[in-house]
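Record Amino acid permease, 526 aa.
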Amino acid sequence: MIFGRVKSLDAILATAEKKSLHRSLGAFQLTMLGIGAVIGTGIFVLTAEAAQKAGPGMMLAFVIAGFVCAVAALCYAEMAAMVPVSGSAYTYSYAVMGELIAWMVGWALILEYAVAAGAVSVGWSGYVVGLIEHTFHLDIPDLLTRGPFDGGMVNLPAMLIAGLVTWLLVIGTKESASVNAVLVLIKVAALTLFIVLALPVMNMDKFTPFAPLGFSGISAAAASIFFAYVGFDAVSTAAEETKNPQRNMPIGLIGSLGICTIFYMLVAAGVIGTVGAQPVTGGGIPISEGGIALAPGSTALSQQCAALAAAGTEAVTCSKEALAWTLREIGWPQIGNLLGLAAGLALPSVILMMMFGQTRIFFVMSRDGLLPAMFSKVHPTYKTPYVITILTGIFVALFAAFFPVGILADISNSGTLFAFAAVSIAVLVLRRTDPSRKRPFRTPAIMFTAPIAILGCMYLFWSLGVETKLMFVGWAAVGLIVYFAYSRSRSHVGRGVSDVPELDAGIPPQPVPPLPGAHTPGGQDA
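=>
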C-alpha cells in the first residue's frame, strides 16, 4: 500500500518529449552555479542564532551541515538526472516510491519553501531596519519590527517585503540570470569585505571556551545552519546538461559546498574573533559558573538582551543584523551600513526564488489531483497561478510577522531534511528494483553514500529543538488526514489518468540559475 500508485517513469519521460539538452557545463561552471545558488542568505540571517546555540563551536557546525549536504546532493543528482523534468523531490518520489510518500514529501516541501521565505523576510527586516536606524539616526520601536517571541508585537517590514514579493509574482515577474548574477556578486563582495576587515583584528582569546554547551550545542547549531546551504540542489538538477557528469558532478557539488563552507567558517571566525560569540545566559552568569544559556528566539533571551543593551554591553547573539553590527563594533560603521544595504538588495531575490518553488509544487500537486483544481488556476491577463501565489504570500507574511528567524529556519529545515532523506532512500530502492534504468549520473559508492546521507539527515533532524520536531509531526499528521480524506480519492494516478503537469504551460518557472548562459535546472528555461 505504502509504495502503491507510482507515477510511471516511462510516462514522465515520454510526455516530456525532451529536447536533449546541450551538455555544456563543466566542473568550473557547476562549481560557480553551486556557489551562486548557496551563498549568502543563511550566513546573513543565522549567525547570531548559531552563536547562541554553540558559541565559537559554530565553526564546526558549518562543516557538519556542509558534509550532510554534500552526500545528500550526490543522491539527489542521480534522481534528478533520471527523472529529467523540472520537478523536485516530490516528482522524484512519485516516480519511485509512490503517491503516499510523494504526498508526504510535497507536504514537507511546503514547510521548506514557505517557511524559509518567511525566515528570509525576517532576516531582511533586521538588516534594513538597522540600516535605516544607523543612517538616519532614528529609533524605530521594536513593537513594530519584531514578533511577539522577540520582544515586539508584529514585524511590519518583514510582512511588507513578503507582500511585495507576492505582488511581483502575481503580475508575472521572473528572475533573470543577469540580475541574479549581479546579486550573487553583491553578496560575495559584502562577505569578502567583512572577512578582510574582521580577520586582521581577531583576538584568539575570544575562541575559548570553544564549545560552551558541549557537542550537543554544536549539533543543534548544525541543524539550524543547514539552512545556509539550501539551494545546492540547483547543481544536482543540472546533471543532464553536464559534460562528463560522472566526473564533473561530484567536483561541482563538493567543490561548491567546500568553498561555501570555508567562506562561512571565515565569516564565523571574523565574528567570533572580534566581538566574541559566547551564548547569552540568564542573569548574565557565565556558563562556567553554572549559568544557563537562553533559548534562541525566546522571550527570556529578548528580555536579557534588552537588559544588556540598557547596560551598554550588547552581544552579537542579540543582534538582528549580526554582520553589520560586528563591523560597526570594530570601527567600520559606514561599511556596516553598506553590508546592510547589500543584504537589503540581495535577500528579496531569495524570497522570490523560495516562493516560486512553493507555488510550483502546489501547482503540480493540484494538477496531479492531490489538491483542489482552483489552486492551479491561471490568471487570464498575467498568466500566473495567482490563487496559490496569493495564498502562499498570505502565509509567508504571517510567518514573517509573528515568528523569529531561528524558529522559522528550524521548521523549514525539518521539511528539507525529510525530503532529502526520502530522495536518498528512493535512489537506493530504485537501484534494487530497476537496475537497468538509464542513469546519466550514478551516485558514487551508493551503498556508502546513501546510508550516510539518510543517517546525516536523521541526525540533523534529531538535533532540532523539541518544539520544531513536534511541529513537524503535527504538520505530517495533518498532511495524512488531508491525503486520506481528500487527495487519495481524487488522484489522477489513482483514477488511471497519466499526465505530467511538470510540463504544463502555466506552471511557475524554476528558480533561475545564478549564471548568465546557464540553463534553468531541470530542462525548461524560465
